[in-house]
Write a structure and sequence with these properties.
It is a single chain. The protein is of the alpha/beta class and about 280 residues long. Helix 3 links the parallel strand 1 and strand 2. Helix content is about 40%, strand content about 20%. The chain has a domain of about 190 residues: Rossmann fold (3-Layer(aba) Sandwich), CATH 3.40.50. The strands form 2 sheets. A 7-stranded mixed beta sheet has the order 3-2-1-4-5-9-6, sandwiched between helices. Strands 7-8 form a two-stranded antiparallel ribbon.
Length: about 280
């Protein structure tokens, strides 16, 4: 699969899940947005770029905290952006705008923003170092760039049960996207390659106890795993769901019902230009 096909696949997948992406069984998205913004603590007049904004969790949190500032959220998925715009309107956040845009073609002038964020988005990009360089280009010297990703143990053991059964159904289980960005050393290399310094990491031990196997299915159905499920026929999907939830139910009965949604937040700073 070439880069353009991969982008189209991601766009289609997120268009599909857009309406359910704010489901209450996915609280880790707003929780991470709140914590990331607390760690950034910018002045109230800052200008912020939010890349891979999705339904605007991070962008709208920023807009609430920047009464004299502004936020631009960009994403490949028009379906996700429609949700973000609707939420901004409902919350009367007039300092947030949303544009459909590829990170490879960021249409902003150099040194335009005070802050850039990319929450749970960088690991979907084929060239993470290149994407970070393009994001950093839009930020002023001294400005901050923040990203988030899940930890290596996030969603375990439920994802392993899901993928194992998926293979039993004769399908190829792809690597988990966030695992590309689950190690501090990898993130450090990406930041350094983009000329970013003063890197700080925050480990957020998020998670909650599943009340039922259906709650896990809500996570699966309303996020990235939906793309895999859509590769099954309707009858296969019903059989898969029944078998998978039987396994999840057994895990919950054994007391293994904690859904680990641990997050890594990384914040770095763009270097000031040296004056000779």
């Amino acid at each position: 699969m070439d880069a353009q096909q991969h982008k189209q696949q991601i766009q289609t997948a997120f268009d599909t899940v857009a309406e359910g992406y704010d489901h209450p069984s996915l609280p880790f998205f707003p929780q991470t947005a709140q914590r990331m913004w607390q760690h950034l603590s910018p002045p109230p007049n800052a200008r912020c770029l939010d890349v891979a904004t999705g339904t605007g969790m991070m962008a709208l949190e920023a807009a609430r905290q920047l009464p004299a500032g502004s936020v631009v959220g960009v994403d490949l998925s028009d379906g996700m952006l429609r949700q973000a715009r609707a939420k901004a309107q409902a919350q009367h956040l007039h300092n947030a705008t949303f544009r459909q845009m590829d990170v490879d073609d960021l249409d902003f002038s150099q040194d335009h923003f005070d802050i850039a964020t990319c929450s749970f988005g960088l690991f979907f990009m084929d060239d993470m170092e290149g994407a970070m360089r393009r994001i950093a280009r839009t930020v002023k010297p001294g400005g901050k760039i923040a990203i988030s990703s899940f930890t290596e143990t996030a969603f375990s053991p439920f994802t392993q049960a899901f993928l194992s059964l998926y293979e039993d159904f004769g399908k190829e289980a792809p690597p988990l996207s966030w695992q590309r960005l689950a190690q501090v050393g990898v993130i450090e290399n990406i930041y350094r390659a983009a000329g970013l310094t003063d890197l700080v990491f925050y480990h957020e031990p998020l998670g909650y106890a599943l009340q039922s196997e259906q709650q896990w299915w809500d996570v699966v159905w309303n996020a990235g795993f939906r793309g895999l499920l859509n590769q099954l026929s309707d009858s296969e999907r019903e059989r898969f769901k029944a078998q998978h939830l039987k396994t999840v139910r057994a895990l919950c009965r054994e007391g293994k019902n904690w859904l680990d949604t641990g997050v890594i937040i990384a914040i770095g700073k763009k270097q000031h230009l040296k004056v000779e």
